[in-house]
Amino acid sequence: MKFAELARSAALVTAVALIPATTAGLAQVDARAGPEFASLFAAYQRIKASYVEPVEDDVLIRGAIDGMLAALDPHSAYLDGSDLQRLETMIDGNYSGLGLSVVLDDGAVKVISPFRGSPAEDAGMKAGDYITHLDGELIYGGDLDEAVARMRGPAGSSIRLTIFRPGRDEPFDVSVTRGVIELEPVTHELMPGNIGHIMVNEFSRDVGSDVLASWDALKEQASGRLSGLVLDMRSNPGGSLDEAVALADLFLDDGRIVSQRGRARGESIVYEAETVFRGDIAAGVPIVVLIDAGSASASEIVAGALQDHRRAVIMGDRSFGKGSVQSLLPLGRDSALKLTTARYYTPAGHSVQEGGIKPDIAVPQLSDPDLAKRSRFTMRESDLRGHLINELKLEDSALETDRQDDPRFQKTAEELKDEGIEDFQLHYALETLRRTAPNAVAARR
Q1: Does the pLDDT value for residue 79 go beyond 60?
Q2: pLDDT for 207
Q3: Is 373 assigned a catalytic role?
Q4: What is the DSSP letter of 428?
């Protein structure tokens, strides 16, 4: 990968937002840190002189950098070589592997979500699964990058994953054949009743334009005027900040989309509507936005903007709750820091950090037979070790109100399957649009 090309790429909110690092800024060291630097150097000297085996300098320096970043938050990291290649992969959305979004949870590799249409999804993997072994070898307590590298490989090759799934008594093995993951960031389908269903699976390049193209295609397919739109961002881990702004701008004709605030000069930015696309492409058409616990960062920016502007009704589950921006700070020709440098806020000034986006209508995924068992193990930003604290210091009890039973949602997965309903959240969104007058839902100005 050409590092210079990456440095010219659009800002990201799942992984990085790209800004230059000034030489003067890097050169400044707080004088009060002198004793700590002395301790660091002393530890380096003792290890070099006395460790049981010789240790290369690059190992110790990399370990020191990793340790500093690990002390900050779960999204800051040192990137070089293959790490930067994976960053390019995330931007372009093409690689050979399984199609999984994973994090390290107390030493265990936990699945945030399998990508739609990926080999991992086809093999039956689900959000919340823990991967304990790769080809029979224990990976618990290991390095996440190493585990990810092992899961990637040539298309057509297979790997055996041992899975612990909350709600099941015993781990089980899943054999997955790697494929070329050419993620379709945007897909669409016309549903009965002239309702469009646009699925935004990730925020890589040109997502805004792709959604516009999907909208135009749906209008051509419809027998008359479109009567509603479901914008589906479930299990979307985020991506490009610019594309999140572009997507929200498609459906807003004025006002703020998102703002970010940081300590460094240039890190406080406001993004306004009408800067990418002109007008509301779906003016007068009611919109439902679907989110879940896997909807993070860029997805939360879009959902928060449409919710605050009362342009859409948000349905589903509370989102992941990642309200921070990371910046790529080059350290050389082929290495950089991915450093958390700002928080972002919805148009109404709310931070989604920890709390996420609360849906207007909480709709559980009743068609999931493991829902009750797995809901206890759902991971969000607030569960990550060392996460940033929301300035409002939300209490856990405030985040649990959406778990209360709702008399509307009592059917079992088996009952829904008998009725032919495989995706209850989508079904409920479509039924809401069908039975509600266009002027009453999501167009409440």
Answers
A1: yes
A2: 93
A3: no
A4: H
